[in-house]
Specification:
The complex is a heterodimer of chains A (about 120) and B (about 300). With about 120 residues, chain A is an alpha+beta fold. Helices cover about 50% and strands about 15% of the residues of chain A. Chain A is elongated. The chains are: A alpha+beta (about 120), B mainly alpha (about 300).
């Protein structure tokens, strides 16, 4: 299990790579989509995070190709990255499930707090 | 074979090794943003790339230990700078007593810090960084204003505080943006430090004490906010600093270093007498306790993790 929750940029980046490998610009757009337009990860932040996640072994370079005369890398999750993301998703799901259960509980029941 | 295309000028600021590795890729990304989203979006990307290059040049990227240290320090520095600024603002606004001494505080430098704290507590890290930029600018402007307008004494009184606040704002700006202290734990730490330090600072600075006027006087005065900060700061920060150190990757090394420095400060170097407001002994002893506490916590945590993986 992860000891601490993932920071939001890390969580969004790993989520954006969860279904398919992506290159830098596609990652930026995907993060915007995953966060429903709330987070726009700039190039400096994105490459800073990628650098860290590559060193931590959570992300790997899937392939390198020349596009429009320029090198372009496509990034993918490693097994460790996928495992970490799955653990975090499970943690978030457990919290969300508990929140929904408590919200839908009958407030007039035995455990409910009444005025 | 296609000819290699020219890299964007912002890429030149990266360290050579990183430029060779990623220069083409980042140039391609900037070009794509410009083509899809226009010039304004492209300028914002270029600014972000410049900041990233600067972080790599200074060794404060999120992949480097210094960057992670900055990210760990931000939740401690923000509440300290904010509550000190708020207190100085309040003190500046109340009429001084004859025995309060000279108070040449420059309110411009302090006004932005409460905004920095509010944004950080709300988990809005981009807004926090923008406010910290404002705090840095206002501190630098205040330094200039103080040197132009105040007497030598007044300028001297302001300079250390203003430089301290400017450094605190720089630390917030230098924190890697992909490691923002916006998690619930970091925000709770900031709120607790702000409360634990802010209440005694504010109350102590506006309350009239006879003892605050100094020795050999029976007149009443208010305590200097900086004196209160130097007293309460080490007491409040010791525990969260120890916990943060115990959690960080190089925590054991940092804790050992802090303990060794505290011991050195205590006796062989005799530095405590040099600390302002006679706070040297307190600072050194709290630094010793922080380092020792962090080492103990680190060892306990390591053992617990090791025994958990045995099963």
């Amino acid at each position: 299990m992860t000891e601490q929750p993932l920071r939001e940029p890390t969580l969004l980046l790993l989520t954006a790579l969860a279904d398919a490998p992506r290159h830098g610009y596609a990652l930026m757009k995907e993060i915007e989509k995953v966060s429903r337009g709330r987070v726009r990860m700039r190039a400096g932040t994105l490459y800073g995070a990628l650098d860290r996640l590559l060193k931590q072994g959570l992300v790997r370079v899937e392939r390198e190709e020349i596009v429009d005369s320029r090198m372009r890398r496509t990034y993918a999750l490693t097994n460790a990255g996928a495992g970490l993301l799955a653990e975090e998703a499970e943690r978030l799901r457990a919290t969300a499930d508990e929140a929904v259960r408590r919200l839908s509980a009958d407030p007039s029941g035995a455990d409910g707090v009444t005025a | 074979m296609s000819t290699p295309r020219k890299q964007h000028w912002t890429i030149r600021l990266y360290p050579p090794a990183y430029r060779r590795e990623y220069g083409d890729e980042i140039t391609g990304l900037i070009s794509q943003v410009r083509a899809d989203e226009g010039q304004r979006a492209s300028i914002l990307e270029q600014t972000a790339v410049l900041c990233h290059a600067l972080r790599l040049r200074t060794g404060t990227g999120s992949a480097q230990p210094a960057g992670r240290l900055l990210a760990g320090l931000a939740p401690l520095v923000i509440p300290v700078a904010s509550v000190l600024s708020l207190t100085l603002l309040v003190v500046w606004a109340i009429p001084p007593l004859p025995w309060d001494g000279r108070r040449a505080y420059a309110p411009l430098a302090y006004a932005v810090w409460p905004v920095v704290l509010i944004c950080a507590l709300a988990g809005r890290w981009t807004a926090t960084r923008i406010a910290a930029g404002g705090a840095l600018g206002s501190a630098l402007l205040s330094l200039l204003l103080a040197s132009w307008t105040a007497t030598a004494e007044g300028q001297e009184q302001n300079r250390a505080t203003l430089i301290g606040l400017a450094l605190a704002a720089l630390l917030v700006l230098a924190t890697p943006p992909d490691l923002p202290p916006t998690a619930a734990g970091a925000r709770r730490t900031m709120a607790l430090i702000a409360l634990a330090l802010g209440v005694p600072l504010l109350v102590g600075s506006v309350t009239v004490f006879e003892a605050a006027s100094g020795p050999y006087t029976s007149a009443e005065a208010r305590a200097d906010p900086l004196r209160l900060l130097f007293f309460f700061g080490p007491l409040v920060l010791a525990f969260p600093a120890a916990m943060a150190m115990a959690r960080s990757r190089g925590g054991l090394f940092l804790a050992a270093l802090l303990t060794a420095c505290a011991v050195l400060l205590f006796s062989p170097l005799g530095v405590p007498v040099e600390f302002p407001y006679d706070s040297g002994s307190l600072v050194a002893s709290m630094a010793f306790l922080t380092g020792t506490g962090a080492m103990v916590r680190y060892t306990v945590r390591k053992n617990r993790l090791a025994s958990a993986t045995e099963f």
